[in-house]
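Pilot study result, target chain (254 residues):
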Amino acid sequence: GMLRDGLWDPGFDVHMGTFAEKCNAEVGITREEQDAFAVRSYRRAVAAQKSGASAREIAAVEVPPARKGGEIVMVERDEEPGNLREDKVPTLRAAFDKGGSVTAANASKLSDGAAALVLVSEEYAAANGVRPIAVIRGCADAEQAPDKFTTAPALAIPRALARAGVKMEDVDLFEVNEAFACVAIANARRLGIDEEKLNVLGGAVAMGHPLGCSGARIVVTLLNALKETGGRIGVAAICNGGGGASAIVVELVE
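Predicted structure:
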């Protein structure tokens, strides 16, 4: 169900990974670049766990025992980041095209997840004594052909920045959802985003991409990363099947 409903393009009747391969060919992204990006994503996610940086954005979940008499398991951190065996990354076979370069390691992981945000108006916050974590400066959507969804964030981000009245050089951090490593690489390349400002606590390649959750997740991670680094303005962007993308500009106020 999830494969057909969320990861399959109905128009071209192919898996979204096929379009990731097309992106690699059009943008000129190598297997080595994708693998290096994936390893960096995992390393950053693991470092954020070890330092406690990612802890503030995670609510622990109790998982009941599978069998009677078993122990309750408390899940307090994302489980995938510690699973990578770096030496195996270059040896993995392509997942979608026999001669391709998208693999299980440099694509996002299928995972379960949930995220929640509380959004209020400025009037409500003032009337109820609520101090927000951040304010939304601007947001935008963009779209292009379904087989080019991978680079749609590069269209949505400039629109969101224009609406926010913010220049690219004034953005402290970016979160671009890592549906595939090539998505983050391609959009960063097109917009000139410094990799040291991109997905600094790791991304979906390392943490997973639970459909319907990732948009909220990357905003939460962005806010957390801004706190960790002392930044103020951040941009989050996510592509979606069908050729679209959404972007949001936030400013930390805490």
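One observation from the pilot: The first strand starts at residue 8 and ends at 9. A full batch analysis is planned for the follow-on phase.
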